[in-house]
Design goal:
Helix content is 69%, strand content 0%. By secondary structure, it is mostly helical. The chain is flat.
């Protein structure tokens, strides 16, 4: 896990040296901005429910996984930040 951290940081920083396999796929800030636009335009209630029931929960689970993994690696400060973002 520790060896994968630099690669993860590169992706989060907006890595541009790798092709995204699916045309039209957005990442990082572009994805957040497009998501905000979709919300402002008015989401279909079914899409809103899907995001609520699936996407938000999946994101929270991954954040929890991050906190646990960082803690296992002894990276307590990072684990605490992830836990704080979860509201723990």
């Amino acid at each position: 896990m520790r060896r994968s951290l630099p690669t993860g940081l590169a992706w989060l920083a907006g890595r541009k040296d790798a092709e995204v396999p699916t045309p039209g796929t957005l990442g990082q800030a572009e994805a957040v901005e497009r998501t905000a636009e979709l919300v402002e335009e008015g989401l279909d209630p079914k899409i809103r429910m899907l995001w609520q029931a699936f996407a938000v929960r999946v994101g929270a689970r991954r954040l929890n996984d991050l906190s646990a993994c960082l803690s296992l690696l002894g990276l307590d400060a990072g684990a605490a930040v992830a836990a704080e973002q979860l509201g723990r």
